[in-house]
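Friendly challenge for the regulars: who can give me the structure tokens for this chain first? No prize, just bragging rights.
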Amino acid sequence: MDLSELQVFLTVAKEGSFSRAAERLYRTQPAVSLAIRKLEDSLGQPLFVRGARPVRLTDAGSLLREYAERLLNLRDEVKKGLLELEGLKRGELSLGVNESSIHALLPAVAKFREAHPGVQVRLHRMFSRDIPHEVVNYRLDLGAVSYVRVIELFARHRTALNMPMEMPTIESIKRFVQMGMGVAIVPRMCVTWEIEHGWLKEIKVRQMNIPRHLYIVSRRGARLPHAAAEFMHLLKSE
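First reply, four minutes later:
Bragging rights claimed.
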């Protein structure tokens, strides 16, 4: 299986059109069609529903797309690792965080940037539940998660944790609470200013007086890229 054929396949799937994929790849449409046909012949399965507009994936195509993304991301991981052999003068660190986690990690990120200004640091904000999947699929080097302790706490006290809404940012959560639309459990450091000015009210719950821990997740059994390993070393030294 040729990685260039997988790249063509993913581009067609994303664009929903052979002609648009050809334009995107700076290739002719017959060349794109030939690459897809060769890939289908090697797999023994049709990957696209013929005649559908826009182009639609078959079940086999949907399955291949996930694996193709992993393979191409792994290829990029290899390229990135080779660049990092230059002593962290170049390279990239991709870190998945939720909005509250980044507050705790900012000092470490600042120290890392000061020590390795040539390394591109990319912080990807997302829900904690999505971070492990992104790490496993090589879209992130490391992830910081923390929400599990709240869920475990409610489960331990046999109390239902009703979350009918999920807001994209801490700021939107605070604004929603200020509108009188509910309550929220957020790290205190994220609402100190609002509490001091009386815009939000803090409700003390004895059982929730627990230290907040961040968990750094990485791929099991895989060697960390140099930049990620250096960032982990910095965190441990702190």
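The two ends are 45 Å apart (CA to CA). The chain has ten helices and six strands. Your move, everyone else.
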